[in-house]
Amino acid sequence: MLTTALVPAPLRLVGHPRERAIRSAITEAMAEAASCFVCRQRVSRPGAFLCAWGEAAAGIAVAQCCRECWRDASDDLVEANAARVLQGAVPGGRFLD
Ligand SMILES: [Zn+2]
Asked: How far is the centre of ligand 1, averaged over its atoms, from the C-alpha of 53 (Å)?
């Protein structure tokens, strides 16, 4: 099973049970050039981070959404692209929410 969180930037994670792990995964992800999972352009200013982790796996996967998409794209579009990204991470995975 995969747990996911869509975390807006700047991070508001206080009290999240995985706060520390998510913060460090996002910090690592930001150090690398990444493309937006919605528009696929290179992210210069992130708007949100899609985080996913499994029960067994120690690591947290992070995908970035640029600020423009996070502000302008519809929730449906962001969610559809998030599902696509996560399906790539977990082929055949189903999402419960
Ligand atoms: Zn974008």
From this structure: 22
